[in-house]
Amino acid sequence: MQYKKLTNADVDNLKGICSSERVHAWEEINEDYSHDEMPEYGYYMPEAVVEAVSTEEVSAVMKYAYENSIPVTPRGSGTGLCGGAVPIYGGILLSLAKMNRILELDEENLTVTVEPGVLLMDLIKAVNEKDLLYPPDPGEKSATIGGNIMTNAGGMRAVKYGVTRDYVMALTVVLPSGEIVKLGSRTTKNSSGYSLKDLMIGSEGTLGIVTEIMLKLIPAPKEVISLLVPFRDLDSCIDTVPKIIKSKAVPTAIEFMQKEVIEAAEEYLGKKFPDKSSDAYLLLSFDGTSREEIENIYEEVADICLEAGAVDVFISDTEERQESIWGPRGAFLEAIKSSTPSMDECDVVVPRNKIAEYVRYVNTLEKKYGVRIRSFGHAGDGNIHVYLCKDDLDDETWKTKCKEIMKALYEKAIELDGQVSGEHGIGHAKIPYLRGSIGDTQITLMRGIKKVFDPKNILNPGKIVG
Ligand SMILES: Cc1cc2nc3c(=O)[nH]c(=O)nc-3n(C[C@H](O)[C@H](O)[C@H](O)COP(=O)(O)OP(=O)(O)OC[C@H]3O[C@@H](n4cnc5c(N)ncnc54)[C@H](O)[C@@H]3O)c2cc1C
Fold first, then answer.
1. Buried/exposed 201-218: b ≥16 CB within 10 Å, e otherwise
2. Ligand 1: residues within 6 Å at CB?
């Protein structure tokens, strides 16, 4: 596809569509727009940044881009980890960050309607004030809800509550042609044809631009209790997870972490973790309407852990104590990042009963390749984040080893019936692994879908299906 390079006239036209102070071109553009949270995947400057403030503006920008064959890359907060919001073909970067109003909080139907640029942290605050909960809990709270929807973000509470997709009721979407469509509805049931809403969720801005979102809420649980469970070694720690799942107790979250990652988080945050005497830990949380309701469940889980070789079980039932363990957990990624000049990451997900086997395999690679590898993750849903650290390896060795380890990581995940990405998405960085994992037939179907929505391939080109 040949794209038009922007001219001064195009920039003037865009300034006519939006107001001129919200259109920035060439040297006026902040360098931050050239990458997301993984600059390792390359820097790509857009030719213009447009900060839209309404569905109508987004529609008018898309109509202009469509008529003139200009590529458009939608962007929320740019906290993505696979290069999804990066304009690899230049063109217009369309920021939704200024569309950040909470439009309606419906306490009768338990829904909230927001613009896509609302930050996750602001949504959490607004619904908590009404004693309600938006259950998905991705770690990065400065991400936008639009970005969360477009990556089908997961997070810590997926074990009990599911992921972003499970809470999206309706979307207003601007198609690449500029047409506006409303997908889904306020109803709790819907069997009316193909679910285009669900297709849009997780499509990483390749099929349409989300400009309004209706989300489902639940009553906020009254009690939350966390358990920090130290184990002598990683094997006994990780082998306990399938036992907890089999017991049918349903924790809100089951995370696993190793001592080295905790130490990195302590250093990064300058705060002490409550316990550091063991090599590996499970961190669990439970929620419910009363302490009695969850007491039986967490006591059962505590017994399972102790029988499986846990050294101790620490109960955190105050906000302060919970913060002392969940705070460092939330900083793991940043802590690992700051410990090495460069890194690469993978976000595979395997069936929950295969998590122990996968983590053990990851640990063999560190020794085999002589590369520092750190992993942590959502043990309860099989989603593991693996980070390869460059440290002082020279560029050539790093590149070669990184490629070989990534190949091994993805091949093992596929062998265990896993998927390339549990929650971060494909962007442009993970395309070869997606192809290798799902095969030609599914890629062809996906390309066909992309063509129906975006026949001129102008919306976020070069992502997911290339
Ligand atoms: C420290 C840290 C922790 C993280 N923890 C988690 C976690 O626990 N779980 C998880 O799932 N992710 C996590 N992430 C990844 C990231 O926060 C998510 O992918 C998030 O959903 C991205 O939101 P964003 O607003 O930053 O989107 P961006 O990075 O700006 O964009 C992400 C994708 O969505 C598209 N997009 C954005 N807005 C729109 C829109 N309105 N319409 C159409 N397309 C759009 C972009 O084109 C791009 O493809 C973490 C990241 C960091 C840095």
1. bbbbbbbbbbbbbbbbbe
2. 36-37, 73-81, 84-85, 96, 116, 138-140, 143-144, 146-148, 150-151, 153-155, 204-205, 209-210, 333-334, 423-424, 460
